[in-house]
Amino acid sequence: MTTILETSSIPPAKSMTDFLPVAEQVAILARGAVDLQVRAELEERLETSRRTGRPLRIKTGFDPTRPDLHLGHTVLLSKMRQFQDLGHTVIFLIGDVTAMVGDPTGQNDARPRLTRDEVRAAATSYTEQAFKVLDASKVELRSNSEWLEKLSPYDMVELMAKTTVSRMLERKDFAQRFADSKPIYQHEFLYPLLQAYDSVALEADMELGGTDQLFNLLMGRDLMTKYGLRGQMVLTTPILEGTDAHIDARGQVAGKKMSKSADNYVGIQEPPLVMFRKLMQVDDQVIFRYFELLSSRTNDEIGVLRAEVREGKSPLAVKALFAEEMVERFHGRDPARLASREFQSIYGGDAIPDAIAEVTVTTDRETLWIAKALSSAGLVKSTGDGKRLVEQGGVEVDQERICDPNYQLARGRRVLVRVGSKNRRFAYITVT
Questions:
Q1: 98 φ/ψ angles, rounded to the nearest 5 degrees
Q2: Of the segments 15-29, 243-257, 372-386, 398-412, which one has the largest average pLDDT value?
Q3: Helices marked H in 53-96
């Protein structure tokens, strides 16, 4: 089990030959980034790093407020892994103090306060899952209780004196709540300052975060200079859209962010076949956004895949490459290959799975309406959904597509029913 307060020393200096040329590093690190402040500064620091053999210190803070992660969370973790692979020091910071304060980012009301025990339990689960992406042997694992719990009242006053209320009100969420006469509690103003002070304590060269964290990250850059340190660089990653996203009329990816509440997520602890199937349902073009944000493939390799699809290669084959890569990352090579084979066996072409549920439904008439049969068998949520699916051509009876929404199944008959196309579901239905 991971110890939350475990720390590791800064790695020794390396030789220049251990680092890729600066241009190659920047090309990798800038891919998928939204904000990079400042690119020229990054190039300069990377050049110094190559000359001195000293890796950059890359800080990323995580407030353990939830125990389960999905692919949306791993966008940031993947960017951290890129820094690791390039030879830099990645600091995985557990915000055990800031989690109890509560990050007000994007909130219309104050976040519920968490207890220390809740935070520690979530932190253990979080780090165990995060190390499925990160190389745990190359992580500097820290906790901000190491320094924040040592701050005296005098230190806290000094910290608060480094910024102003008007600066805090530049944040959209605070500004909106102030305009709506909603309460802003004083401890909420502390959150960005405490996160910024983490950068001071760690002497970070760069801090990573999601786009919603830009204000907090820039606060760290500013605060470091007030403590006599060089301000950290800032890099933000985008928020990943869910599996139901699409390409809009402008050619942009559109849709809700990946989340459990929207039921458009791929959990990193879900069974291999479930992960594989969900990723195969992603829009043929949206999958390239997933490649760019999560794949270990290079820009050139992704560009080749795009070109191949334009020239006629099946998008399903490309999605299968991504799905297998993700399953392998979180479950291993053998489970990934097995999931690929199982998917093709169950969902590929006209394949029929070996194991199909047997369902008996009843009627007091000579026939049973197909939509009612689908609903009773648990293949759809309601008769309305069943009717629409039939009308859309998404239902087969004994491997024959039916489009008549009033189709009837005869009593005493056993039929093989399939619903859906990308997410196929099968059942043998007997009407009695």
A1: -65, -30
A2: 243-257
A3: 71-85
Q: Tell whether the torsion through CA atoms of 18, 21, 22 and 26 is positive or negative.
A: negative
Q: Using alpha carbons, select from 189, 207, 168 the residue that is nearest to residue 90.
A: 207
In the sheet that holds 57-62, the strands lie side by side as 35-37, 233-237, 206-210, 57-62, 89-94, 139-143
> What pLDDT is attached to residue 4?
30
* Tokens at 365, concatenated: 């008439």
Q: Would you state the pLDDT for residue 8?
A: 37
What structural domains and CATH numbers belong to the chain? 16-237 (3.40.50.620), 246-347 (1.10.240.10), 358-431 (3.10.290.10)
Please report, for residues 62, 170, 199, 376, 428, the alpha-carbon distance to residue 102 in angstroms, rounded to integers and kept in the order given.
12, 19, 18, 45, 51
Cross-strand partners of 253: 247
Coil, helix or strand at residue 115: coil
Q: Which two tokens stand for residue 414?
A: 């056993």
Which pLDDT does position 9 carry in this prediction? 37
Cα–Cα distance between 67 and 123 in angstroms, integer? Answer: 7
Q: Is pTM, for the whole model, over 0.85?
A: no
pLDDT per residue as tens digits for the range 10-43: 444 455 558 999 999 999 999 889 999 999 999 9
